[in-house]
Specification:
The chain has 231 residues and is α/β, with parallel strands linked by helices. Helices cover 45% and strands 12% of the residues. The chain has 10 helices and 7 strands. The chain has a 5-stranded parallel sheet, with helices on both faces. Strands 6-7 form a two-stranded antiparallel ribbon. It starts with a strand and ends with a strand. It comes from Amycolatopsis roodepoortensis. InterPro entries: TfuA_core. This is TfuA-like core domain-containing protein.
Length: 231
């Protein structure tokens, strides 16, 4: 089956290609789905992970619905894909992952939760999505890596920043003024030691879901600077 997946700062092309042998395109923008549908042989499945929103118009729910009306199975996760899946899953779009679940449930609703800036040349993220910070802090509190109040204040500081300025080290620097040195060392060590990357994890889940859809015979697998903006 023919399939296309739009990726960007959420997951690198090498990792994505190792999971699924399909056509990968850079973050989706307004008009890209129509371009795919205009091909002599349109894709039968399309996955949206990342999308553009500052430098061009973002892909609209109407475009997603039009693709599904043409018989395309649409998948979304992680970033722009999670936003559109939360809006369009009642009409048949397949939403995948924790971030999609947060939007669909209404526990989060702001676009800036998944927004980042990225390097246009290699599509690498230059800032940290707020939603990744939320899941990281929740994991740190659960592990007892730092006090719940410390985590809550970390998130408050991060949310006050404009999304291009949301970098873990910046938030940690601002937090340092407010908490004891030993507590700051604990939360800094947690992030230095590898906080979870929920956007990437959700992208991997989307690729696994599409792999199962494209080849039902396979055994299902479960997996838990030109600066641009991406959702």
């Amino acid at each position: 089956m023919r399939a296309v997946v739009f990726i960007g700062p959420s997951i690198d092309i090498e990792s994505a290609s190792a999971e699924l042998d399909v056509e990968f395109l850079p973050p989706v923008k307004r008009g890209d789905l129509a371009g795919l549908l205009a091909r002599p042989e349109p894709p039968e499945a399309i996955g949206i992970v990342d999308g553009r929103f500052l430098q061009s118009l973002c892909v609209s729910p109407k475009e997603v619905l039009e693709a599904m009306d043409r018989g395309v199975t649409m998948f979304g996760s992680s970033s722009m894909g999670a936003l559109r899946a939360a809006e369009c899953s009642p009409f048949g779009m397949v939403g995948v992952g924790k971030i999609y679940e947060e939007y669909f449930s209404g526990r989060i609703d702001a676009d800036d939760e998944v927004a980042v800036t990225y390097d246009e040349e290699n599509l690498s993220a230059l800032s940290e999505p707020m939603v990744n910070m939320r899941f990281a802090i929740a994991a740190g509190i659960e592990q007892g890596a730092f006090a719940p109040g410390t985590g809550e204040r970390f998130l408050e500081i991060a949310k006050e920043l404009y999304f291009p300025q949301r970098v873990n080290r910046t938030v940690l620097m601002l937090l340092r003024r407010e908490i004891p040195e030993d507590e700051h060392a604990r939360i800094a060590a947690f992030f230095a030691g590898g906080a979870p990357d929920t956007k990437r994890e959700d992208a991997l889940l989307l690729l696994a879901a599409m792999r199962d859809f494209l080849d039902p015979a396979t055994e299902p697998q479960i997996r838990s600077v030109d600066v641009r903006g991406a959702l």
